Fold this sequence. Notes:
Elements: E1 5-14, E2 22-32, E3 37-41, H1 48-56, E4 63-68, E5 71-72, E6 83-86, H2 98-108, H3 113-126, H4 130-135, H5 144-156, E7 162-166, H6 174-191, E8 194-199, H7 202-208, E9 211-216, E10 219-224, H8 226-231, H9 236-241, E11 246-255, E12 259-264, E13 270-274, E14 287-292, E15 297-300, E16 308-318, E17 323-329, E18 337-342, E19 354-359, E20 365-368
Parallel strand pairs: 3-8, 3-9, 6-7, 7-8
Antiparallel strand pairs: 1-2, 1-4, 4-5, 9-10, 11-12, 11-14, 12-13, 14-20, 15-19, 16-17, 16-19, 17-18
Helix pairs in contact: 2-3, 2-5, 3-5
The site of magnesium ion has 2 residues, from helix 1.
Amino acid sequence: MSENLTYEKVNKIFDVGGKNPVHALCDVSFTINSGELFCLLGPSGCGKTTLLRSTAGLETITSGKMLYGDVDISTIPPYKRNIGMVFQSFALYPHMNIFENVAYGLRVRKTPEAEVKRKVTEVMELVGLQDELKRNPSPTALSGGQQQRVAIARALVYSPDILLLDEPLANLDAKLRRYMRAEIRRIQKATNITTIFVTHDQEEAMAVGDRLAVLRKGVVEQIGTSDELYTQPQNSFVANFIGKMNFFKAEIENIDGASALARVKGTGFAETVDRSRIHGSFTKGSSALLGARPEQLIVSKALPQRPSLPGTVKIIQHLGQFVRYEVEMEGDAASAIFEIDMGGLVVDIKEGEKVNVSLKSSLASLYEAKEEA
Ligand SMILES: Nc1ncnc2c1ncn2[C@@H]1O[C@H](COP(=O)(O)OP(=O)(O)O)[C@@H](O)[C@H]1O
Ligand SMILES: [Mg+2]
């Protein structure tokens, strides 16, 4: 029976010769449900690999617990944890054929030969390499995508309780990467093995995961489905990491239980923000960031009816379903470069021209100013 995997106040401190120890994981606490495909997302150096290696037992955590069901696995040696791991570099054995690469974990476990054959065949079918298995070459004779499948098969063959994938697609080209995202979802759903998929690519995490955790500097910033993270980011870091968020620098002019009135400093640009979109605690006079997604803003040449701020169009990009305007905002009332997505080309606006930027609808959100991304 498969169980939930729970992290309880997990800390990992790397002691690097006495000075400036690295606090790689800070009170990490969350639960991954049995059978879930869970993504760990965050910029390089935020602690993703450290959490995976700690789960596998390749690092010893400084404090906290890691529970598989009711059992604390943090003191169990790695070879007794029954965890499969796939590394970014694939880490296949070039001197062994692909059968032996995949069979490795079974041989270590002293599995009878007939069962080795049956299990390797089964898992190679699952990852779509049945034809390659018949030829049985060295992994070096395979393409990058096929090598990645061998690495996944090798981790799955002994039916691990947990599968850990550390940036498994990072070494593949862009097109194959997009294809393999769907493959990984298919394979995970077919086996139902609890899986942690690590990536620094937000689009990949949103496409692959049932749920995601966003990690920054060893701290879990938010956990939720792709949709929850995109539509209800809890702070400005998540807001700008999951998709783009443009920020106006504002001040709270009025606040009550229902809404807040935020004014962009020194301008006539003010917006009422509904309580459901206020993230953080504010009082009258506090500084705040007023955030708007690219599709929530409008660029126009003529002064719009709604309050607006001036900027200069730097770049216009046609991106199929929409046209993206990169606008350099004037003064310091806003983060320097805005991205604004319009449904189509605005005919009278050219690169290098001055425009007015306004909010399309009252869907802007408020975030605390101190945590600007
Ligand atoms: N063995 C180690 N010794 C010292 N510092 C380490 C070690 N491994 C990782 N770190 C540091 O811990 C932090 C998290 O690293 P890592 O988990 O590899 O991040 P990510 O996988 O998200 O890029 C970084 O600051 C990194 O430099
Ligand atoms: Mg890493």
